[in-house]
């Protein structure tokens, strides 16, 4: 299978094209004080979780908060403090010991956070003061709350946000990550700059397509200039079709291929696109597919959403994509690569209640590797 063949990103050789998609799992250890650094630091369970999946060609971590303003998900990890770096280092070292390659996904939640997570400002931030409609957010105490009207970032605050990304990149480097993925999807801060429905600015960061992508370009350039990572170790993720976070804009079919063309100039590690529709479709413009990006982006393209072994093989074999990211299948099949390799059956999707809730090992590290058909035979004979 071509899906299982090697692939090179920059100077990194991936052992196959199967990628662990970024998956928020909320498994840092909860304590009584939700602001405790323990609640944002990877623990031994998380080391085990990533190590179990290290046969993938590339592992992308769960979204990881780069700053106080950017955080907003209880028990999701941060990359802000020395303790965070120490915790992540254990994950990275364990994955490297299994010859895995791991990128950290950088997260600023923007308007999807809640002000209670941000004691120093008591605000959430976005390009424009537009609240999500029909979507609840969670407070620092874990209660559901109405989405708030975010504060419009000033240009000085945009510059400070870029500095936060650079700081996070230096810390990710210190933890030993092979690279980083900038989360520009799913209605989080950068996506809300990219899309016309959420960016109503009239300054250099809004209006034209060139203005709307400016923040992503500046983050990318600043990280490269800082020396933390070169361009070929920095990927980025788009979700032009998605509804998550009350997103979707009428011009996405024109805007996103243009954004990819602009980013192509930097020769990034890869472009990661949630082009499938199985995570929700806004239906406000035509579907944007990896084929639209292939025309304008020369580097590696990773596709995602709703893939299985056969559709992923088709994507690679047809040349539509170079890499295939798996989310829900990888949650319940830690040995996904081995199952693909040997044509072994797959476990069904994990129960939704275990996706993000702090259920510890349950629905997280308790999926066993395939151990042959004998179990089913034994069960039948009982
Ligand atoms: C439990 C869960 C957590 C997720 N967390 C993230 C995340 O942290 N960052 C992100 O970019 N996407 C996240 N996603 C989206 C997945 O990366 C992926 O795009 C989605 O699951 C569709 O792929 P699949 O059909 O292979 O599951 C999450 C999805 C799930 C199910």
UniProtKB/TrEMBL annotation:
One of its GO terms (molecular function) is FMN binding. InterPro entries: Aldolase_TIM (IPR013785), OxRdtase_FMN_N (IPR001155), Oye-like (IPR045247). SUPFAM superfamilies: FMN-linked oxidoreductases. This is N-ethylmaleimide reductase. Keywords: Oxidoreductase. GO terms for cellular component: cytosol. Belongs to the NADH:flavin oxidoreductase/NADH oxidase family. Residues 7-346 form the NADH:flavin oxidoreductase/NADH oxidase N-terminal domain. Its cofactor is FMN.
């Amino acid at each position: 299978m071509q899906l299982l063949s090697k692939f090179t990103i920059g100077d990194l050789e991936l052992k196959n094209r199967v990628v662990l998609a970024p998956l928020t799992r909320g498994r840092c250890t909860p304590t009584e004080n939700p602001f405790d650094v323990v609640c944002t630091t990877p623990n031994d369970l998380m080391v085990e979780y990533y190590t179990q999946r290290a046969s993938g060609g590339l592992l992308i971590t769960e979204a990881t908060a780069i700053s106080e303003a950017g955080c907003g998900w209880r028990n999701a990890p941060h990359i802000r403090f020395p303790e965070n770096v120490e915790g992540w280092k254990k994950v990275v070292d364990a994955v490297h010991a299994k010859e895995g390659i791991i990128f950290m996904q950088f997260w600023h939640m923007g308007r999807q956070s809640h002000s209670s997570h941000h004691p120093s400002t008591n605000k959430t931030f976005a390009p424009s003061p537009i609240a999500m409609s029909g979507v609840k957010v969670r407070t620092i105490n874990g209660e559901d709350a109405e989405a708030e009207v975010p504060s419009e970032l000033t240009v000085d605050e945009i510059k400070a946000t870029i500095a936060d990304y650079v700081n996070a990149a230096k810390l990710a480097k210190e933890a030993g990550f092979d690279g980083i993925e900038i989360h520009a999807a799913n209605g989080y801060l950068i996506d809300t700059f990219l899309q016309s429905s959420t960016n109503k600015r009239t300054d250099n960061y809004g209006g034209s397509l060139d203005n709307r992508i400016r923040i992503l370009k500046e983050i990318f350039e600043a990280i490269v200039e800082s020396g933390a990572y070169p361009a070929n170790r920095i990927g980025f993720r788009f979700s032009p079709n998605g509804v998550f976070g009350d997103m979707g804009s009428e011009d996405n079919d024109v805007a996103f291929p243009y954004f990819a063309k602009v980013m192509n100039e930097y020769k990034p590690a890869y472009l990661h696109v949630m082009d499938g529709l199985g995570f929700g479709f806004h239906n406000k413009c035509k579907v944007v597919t990896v084929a639209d990006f292939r025309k304008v982006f020369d580097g590696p393209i990773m596709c995602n959403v709703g893939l299985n072994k056969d559709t992923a093989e088709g994507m690679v074999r047809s040349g539509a994509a170079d890499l295939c990211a798996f989310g829900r299948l990888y949650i319940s099949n830690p040995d996904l690569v081995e199952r693909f390799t040997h044509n072994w059956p797959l476990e069904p999707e994990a129960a939704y209640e275990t996706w993000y809730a702090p259920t510890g090992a349950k629905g997280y590290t308790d999926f066993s590797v395939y151990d042959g058909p004998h179990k089913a035979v034994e069960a039948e004979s009982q």
